[in-house]
Every structure is written in C-alpha cells, then in structure tokens.
Amino acid sequence: MQLYVDCPCTSFPRSFARDFKETYRYPPPSTIYGMLLSLIGEENLDQHRGVKLAIGIIGADPPISRILRKQRHHKFSKNRLGTYSTSKFSKPNHHELLTDVQVVVKVDSSEENAPLKLVDRLAIAFTTPQQISRFGGLSLGESWALVNGVRPYRDNDGSIRWLIKDNRGLISLPIWIDRQSSQGTFQRFRLGNEFEDHCWVRIPQLTVPTPRSRPSAARRS
What we know:
The protein has helices at residues 29-40, 118-127, 217-220; strands at residues 2-10, 20-21, 52-58, 64-72, 90-108, 149-152, 160-165, 171-177, 184-192, 201-202.
C-alpha cells in the first residue's frame, strides 16, 4: 500500500529541543506510525509493531519558518501560593514550523504479528470508513498539525525522493521512542530518487521480558 499525505503546517520537534523547538525537516518513522494508528482508531501503540514503513518526500524540502510566541510558566508549591504577574512568569518561546509537507508512505505488514494487519485495517478505513471507530482530528506531528488529506498515491502527485537508511547519512530521525524509559531508537538516512530495500524501516517488535532464573535447589540448600 502506498499513501499520499498532505499537511499544510506542522512541526516535528527534535528530541533534544527545549525552549527553542527545532524541528526535524522530514517526518520521523515514529510520527508516521502514530498517524497511521490514529487513522484507523487504534489506541494501543504496540498493536502493529513490526510493520515496515518507507517514507518519501514530494517536491522540494518544506521550508522552515521560525515563530516567537509567549509561554506562561508557573510553579505551584505551598510556598508560592497567590497571584502571579504575567510579566514575571512569561517567557519567549521560539518554535520552528514546516509548511506544505507532502509525504508518500509505503506500508508492508508481512512481518507483523497482529491478527488483522495494519495494511488491511488501512484498506478498510479507505473503502468502508463506517467500520472504523476513531476520535479527534488526524494530525501529523503535534496535535494542532491537522492533516489536509490522506489517500492512495497517484502517479501525477509528483516525483518522490525517498529516505534511504545510510549510517553515513546526514539525516537523523527517531524510529521509536520508549515512553517508559524515554530511550529512543534512531537511524541515519540520505535522500535518493530511486526506491530500494534500504528505504524500509521496521518499527521495532515488542520485546518480551526475560523471566529471572530461579536459584537451583542445591544453591537454596
């Protein structure tokens, strides 16, 4: 399955970004995976781990805009009760935005363990959307970055530049972020005009914890 995604304005904050929210220039596989789950109404992030994704960019690199906004910052504690002036607890916040993002996503569910594969659920969402149950707007990136549309890719959508795995590439993107440990899995990429096997990125399979070995009877005695 090959999908076309159009998002007029979004941001993919870098993992180390704090007050200055820098953005990745290209959509990370982890973000694309989350968007696909949202599209089919799946709330369990682990449901389709093992799926393989390939991400391409249509057209030129999306331009980056930098905006300045006001962020209110309050710390509540027993010693800081009361009313605080806005001028004292507001600070500038810089944010990078991407505009006119057009993405192509290939989905391969051949190595998934889910009983109903992600690619099958996506097909249901497009052919019989009344069979899926979801809520909220569909976003690519942060919740405010609403998607303009998702549909199967057409040849006249434009030529594609694919993200290709390359350990010497200059594009570093997160593939998976463990929400429990905050540890991330990252991969380096380069852009290429031709699709190849190294375009596929696999969302890591769910690891099964290894049971602790119990001391033998001889050691217990």
